[in-house]
Predict the 3D structure of the following.
Amino acid sequence: MGGFFHRHRGVTPYLLLAPGILWLGIFFLVPMGFLGYQSLQSGIFPDFRFTWEFSNFSTALTDYHQQLIRSFVYAGIATVACLLLAYPLAYWIAFRAGPWRNLFLLFIVAPFFVTYLVRTLAWLNILADQGPVVRVLRDVHILAPDGRLLATTFAVISGITYNFFPFMALPVYVSLEQIDPRLLEAAKDLYASSFQAFLRVTLPLSAPGIVAGTLITFIPAAGDFINAALLGTPNQQMIGNVIQAKFLESLDYPGAASLSFILMGTILVMLLVYARIVGTEKLTG
Amino acid sequence: MDGIGWNEKLTDPVTSVKQLFEDPKLKGKVGVWNSMGDTLGLVMLENGDDPSHVTDSSFNRAIARVQKAKNSGQIRSFYGNDYATHLSTGDLAATMAWSGDIANLADPKLHWAVPEQGGIIWTDNMIIPLGGSVPTASTYMNFMYDPKISAQWAVGANYISSVTGVKPGAEKLDPKAAENTLTFPTAKTLSQMHQNDPAMLNNSDYNKKWLAVQGQ
């Protein structure tokens, strides 16, 4: 075997790449190609015909720009909220938790032991109008007497934040955990205050984790539909809900496929802009 | 049967779609279905239109009424079967509701009524797919249509059986369940029922408009 690789040294990298390329080809390119083909079809279910129907894209944008913008706004707010909550937690676990580190990491990952849908359904009970949380908030006048948490924008964004929190916390933790504490000592030796040391040493060194966390939180959050479906109302519907309804209820496959492409394309453009701003070396760690 | 359910802890009886859509005391606590035929059927009856012969104008009148109630915040959201738990937990005070769901919950604070302007009755259907074994499927269908078997089904599922002569069998199985007028409705209730227009359900433009009201 070793002899084979030695004799065909030029081919070896390609052989090693083959499983990955094959996987990408079958599970990414083929479905993408099919979706692209479908997005340019016209007709009514089940008689769709390929007609280069580019107007599917303009119609989708005209009809659903509101849900598209809403998805990015909700995903953006949730990503920032995740970062603000996850960073101090990850920092504390990385630098202060000592022997309890693994236990706290387990707490972050623990929600994954329960399916996404069930976790979100649990919030229906927690935030219920007659539930204890709303009752307390009404009693202390944070909520109006007829105010509610469920079926609001707040509930949907909170649901997304809650569900994607580990995607932010884990990469941030990994980047913080790798920081050599001697660098912080050195900063202090050079008369940096704790805050300055954090700002000039810890924060820049944890940037790859922040960038990775923001991406893997924002991208799936923008396409999410479970939170809006369960915790929201028609006023909080996101683009994922529209795509789901088009595929499964109105059976408008070309419309759904073109919206999926618009969503992917927009995310890709945002990603490129983000990469340009933060620099690609941070993007790849 | 399509009708209105309400939670007596949160509201007085709600017996019309007009009350459901316009009573300020119910604001933000009203549910409707996300299925077009059921919701618009009840709204059309309220509007004095015939849900079994839908025209563009009767459809538009009905959808405008739902849109108005949604925009004003009267309608909280559009639900599948999950409206029942929301009604039970108190997130909804009143909602369009299927008789069988309310019967299944058997929650003493929940009530169901046929709206004053009438309700909608529907059936779940059995279909033999192309290429399916017709003798096997027919045997199963005949089995399900046996009054004794259908009585067991009605008592278990709490939905109305489409088979005649089921009640005596149900009385033997479970006399209390056989008294439930949600599962074994009176002739008066059945006389208030109407049917949906299948052409409306298959109209893709209508479906698109219906999803648009739901923000989709």
